[in-house]
Specification:
- By secondary structure, this protein is of the alpha+beta class.
- The protein folds into two domains: 127 residues, Zincin-like (2-Layer Sandwich); 49 residues.
- Helix content is 28%, strand content 21%.
- It contains five helices and nine strands.
- The strands form three sheets. Strands 5-6-7-8 form a four-stranded antiparallel beta sheet, with no helix packed on it.
- Strand 5 and strand 6 form a beta hairpin.
- The longest helix has 21 residues.
- It is globular, with a radius of gyration of 18 Å.
Length: 197
């Protein structure tokens, strides 16, 4: 637990310790990964591993950690007989997160959005753009740009170097054309982009 004390809110430490004491698990804190905040895996030797990105603020880190701990709990109970983010996972996630959904752990600005998200939690908190915006507002240094900040017709690049132009805002996503190929792609509203290409 010493590993987590700097990464999660102080009032959540003893609760996370309780969650982790039930099962044997290896936990690693990783450098930033563009495609995920954390993950849960069963290793070839049968041991379980959780990883969480080190660049997350303490509120996002806590939600991500409990998300991954939920995968552990569901795996221990059901093995691989249920969907990774199915009904069993959603119900277990609600149960495990509820003790920390209070103003002693999260700022009051985040709580209503978390409560709304947990009505039907998705595979990633990134699917809830309003929740993401509020969570990102607690980042220590957020000098990043996101697609929802762009005006139509603006160009941008992403981590793999491809250059796009924002064509249209759809209901939940942004339709963009890749400049080089003319192919269309859909981006989540909170996709991180680079304005220097």
């Amino acid at each position: 637990m010493q590993l987590f004390k700097d990464f999660i809110p102080a009032n959540s430490i003893s609760y996370v310790e309780e969650l982790l004491n039930l099962y044997s698990i290896e936990i690693k804190i990783k450098s930033e990964r563009k495609t995920r905040h954390g993950d849960f895996r069963v290793l070839s030797n049968g041991n379980c591993l959780i990883t969480v990105n080190s660049n997350l603020n303490k509120y996002r880190f806590l939600v991500t950690l409990i998300h991954e701990i939920t995968h552990l709990y569901v795996y221990k109970r059901f093995k691989n007989t249920v969907k990774p983010h199915g009904v069993e996972w959603k119900n277990q996630f609600r149960i495990l997160i509820s003790p920390v959904l209070n103003p002693d752990v999260f700022p009051k600005a985040i709580l209503p959005l978390l409560a709304n998200y947990f009505k039907n939690p998705k595979a990633s908190t990134d699917s809830d753009i309003e929740l993401v915006k509020v969570l990102k507002s607690y980042d220590l240094c957020d000098d990043k740009n996101y697609i929802y900040e762009l005006d139509l017709g603006k160009k941008f690049s992403i981590y793999n170097g491809k250059i796009f132009k924002l064509e249209e805002k759809l209901r939940k996503r942004y339709k963009c054309v890749e400049i080089e190929t003319g192919k269309y792609y859909l981006f989540n509203a909170n996709s991180e982009i680079n304005l220097k290409y």
